[in-house]
């Protein structure tokens, strides 16, 4: 199905398949597999070997990289992460995404915007995808703490990485990858100057984390707190659309 064009009129063919394992995770899975086999086949320590074998399955599952069907609509801002919408609030974007950083690249304008925070547990897919297509104008890594990523203050205190994406029409969008309680490394797949498409893989955060998206002024979310999102597929917002949406948990 990769690369196939699908639409809402029935065009395309959808088939289930096992998700691929991202290369970044294969080495970790092979290491735990080798250790489990040593305990089982060499030392005959089943009490340790079988749990290690189960851990191997968990490691491979964590780094799974399924295909996604990405909406091809310039108005859509798609989710960069699988997970749960944990916070929606009005706030100023991070200083690293604002104004001129000295390189001549103009960042986001000052003023409060809507921030959507998506929390990823260790059971979610951790490959992050671009909310919109464009050029990577900034990639700013900031070392920090490793508090629970679900806490609001994690946006300011945890290890994080800011990205600024600018489209050809001048529209710019900022997002932040935040390491969590278990996560210990943010792995980027892109660098400043790279041109990317909406839904393209841009990086991953190992073992539980969060992603913040900063919507442009005059744009309201189309998701609710508590809602699950799918990276590259769930539409977080449509640029320029403002509408109160209510829901109920049931």
Automatic annotation (TrEMBL):
Coiled coil: none annotated. It holds the Pfam family PS_Dcarbxylase. It comes from Allopontixanthobacter confluentis. This is Phosphatidylserine decarboxylase proenzyme. Binds 1 pyruvoyl group covalently per subunit. PANTHER family: ARCHAETIDYLSERINE DECARBOXYLASE PROENZYME-RELATED (PTHR35809:SF1). Catalyzes the formation of phosphatidylethanolamine (PtdEtn) from phosphatidylserine (PtdSer). It catalyses: a 1,2-diacyl-sn-glycero-3-phospho-L-serine + H(+) = a 1,2-diacyl-sn-glycero-3-phosphoethanolamine + CO2. Its cofactor is pyruvate. It is an enzyme of class 4 (lyase). The gene is psd.
């Amino acid at each position: 199905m990769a690369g196939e064009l699908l639409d809402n009129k029935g065009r395309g063919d959808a088939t289930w398949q096992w998700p691929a394992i991202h290369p970044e995770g294969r080495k970790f899975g092979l290491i735990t597999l080798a250790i489990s086999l040593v305990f089982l086949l060499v030392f005959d320590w089943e009490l340790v070997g079988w749990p290690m074998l189960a851990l191997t399955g968990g490691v491979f599952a964590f780094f799974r990289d399924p295909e996604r069907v990405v909406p091809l609509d310039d108005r859509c801002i798609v989710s960069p992460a699988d997970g749960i919408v944990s916070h929606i609030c009005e706030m100023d974007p991070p200083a690293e995404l604002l104004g001129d950083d000295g390189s001549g690249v103009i960042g986001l304008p000052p003023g409060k915007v809507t921030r959507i925070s998506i929390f990823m547990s260790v059971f979610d897919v951790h490959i992050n995808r671009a909310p919109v297509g464009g050029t990577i104008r900034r990639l700013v890594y900031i070392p920090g703490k490793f508090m629970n990523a679900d806490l609001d203050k994690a946006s300011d205190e945890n290890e994080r990485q800011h990205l600024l994406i600018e489209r050809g029409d001048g529209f710019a969008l900022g997002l932040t990858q935040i390491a969590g309680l278990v996560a210990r490394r943010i792995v980027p797949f892109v660098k400043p100057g790279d041109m990317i498409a909406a839904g393209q893989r841009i990086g991953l955060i190992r073992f539980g984390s969060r992603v913040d998206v900063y919507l442009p002024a005059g744009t309201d979310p189309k998701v609710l707190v508590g809602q699950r999102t799918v990276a590259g597929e769930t539409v977080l917002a449509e640029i320029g659309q403002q509408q109160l949406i209510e829901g109920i948990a049931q």
